[in-house]
Write the structure tokens for this entry.
Amino acid sequence: MADNLSFELFYEAQLIPALTPLEERRKAVVKRISVTCGIVIALAVLVAALLWPSSGDLTILLLPVIGAAALCAFAFKLLSADYVHAFKTEVVGAIVKYISPDLIYLPKEGISGERFRASGISNHRIDRYSCEDMVKGVVDKTRIEFSELHAEYKTESVDSKGRRHTRWHTIFKGLFFIADFNKHFHGRTFVLPDTAERLLGRFGQVFQKMDQQHGELVRLEDPVFEKEFAVYSTDQVEARYILSPALMRRMLEFKRKTGSKVYFSFTGGEVNIGISSGKNRFEPKVFSTVLDIELAREFVSDLQLALGIVEDLNLNTRIWTKE
């Protein structure tokens, strides 16, 4: 990555010419959203005024309020969609190329649901799935790809009045990274956040052993690593071969660096890494100016977090005959 001075020159020379017309476009989008939502709110107030005298029930007023909120959210998404896509294509795409010409950025694509399932990081049923902001290419010797994704499942219940309720639960939301791994392996090894042992101590090991979906529990000789992660594998010997002391140290350092829950799986010759986050990366601002170099720096920082995985986990070091 280039230094701060060269980034500032890049920002002035390439991003400002792209951002200036986008700023005018953003202002027009805000105006349309404001007018549309103003009309929706006025209609909601009118409907509430008509409903209240005839019913006298305060709960009936929730209907126009909920309806107005849903329509405003829909209007925001619809009216800002073209602006958001243009920003991502022209600005985020340029930043990706600035970081590395060997990478391509596809804002409307992402890691597919099939590849997320194949990683084995979660075996839960997926009822709703979305992905975006794909970056892929080669970092030195290592093929990589990553995107944001959100996988969910739903539950349904019926209350005492016979009303059906649907709730959505997040399986994983965040940045998902796939890279060619630098060692040969044939089994499947999973390194998952160890919530049970961290909360319950040695008693948590009982719950770890009960998880048979990912294979057998692997006991390692690194107490710090085992406090943070639970390791499962279809091949105990291979799991220890993959998780060398150096790699475990790097994985711990990476987790501390992200400050988030981190999931790893080693399957099919690849390492899959999930960085849990509620943050929606690479999204432009709508209600405040985009002519802000710090916004561009934030995009660079998010990209460097993902690309830094290659260096953080030493993936470019080829072991034995893997090239």
Residues 4-55 form the longest helix (52 residues). The chain is about 50% helix and 25% strand.
